[in-house]
Amino acid sequence: MWERLETFVLSWINARVGASEYQDEAWQELEEYLQSGPPPVVSRPEKEARLPREIRQSLFDLELNENATKEEIRDAYRRLLREYHPDRFHNDNGRSHTASEVTQRLSLAYRRLNDYYRY
User: Fold this and answer.
1) pLDDT in the model for residue 57
2) How many CA atoms lie within 13 A of 112 on its CB side?
3) Most distant CA pair in the chain: distance in Å?
């Protein structure tokens, strides 16, 4: 439709000869479009209320998405705790300290999620 409308407008501007059949078609389409009214508004389903920032951060820390279940949260916490527990790095003091900080962060995230979802 827009190509025909463009042809129609250009024919009016340039007063081209032989464009009358395009003018008639474009004018008819324009009238139909204007008579049909504005296009219908497509309703979108309401997006769920966003989770609080702390909860989103906790889910991120546990490498989960917003639709995580109780079991997924528990399993992710346990998996990450096994991976980053300070006892695994008892020979390397620097890594042990870092692992301790990560473990504290994981524990905080898990506690926040437990409190938020009240399991």
Assistant:
1) 94
2) 18
3) 90
Query: What whole-number distance in Å separates Cα of residue 31 and Cα of residue 8?
Result: 13
17 has a pLDDT exceeding 80 = no
d(CA 56, CA 91): 34
Identify the CA nearest to 33 among candidates 1, 6, 7: 1
d(CA 71, CA 55): 17
Residues 6+ apart with CB under 8 A from 100: 86
Q: Span 61-75, mean pLDDT?
A: 93
Which residue range is the domain that position 85 belongs to? 53-117
Domain count of the chain?
2
* pLDDT at residue 1, rounded to an integer: 54
Residue 97 belongs to a domain: yes
Q: pTM of this prediction? A: 0.56
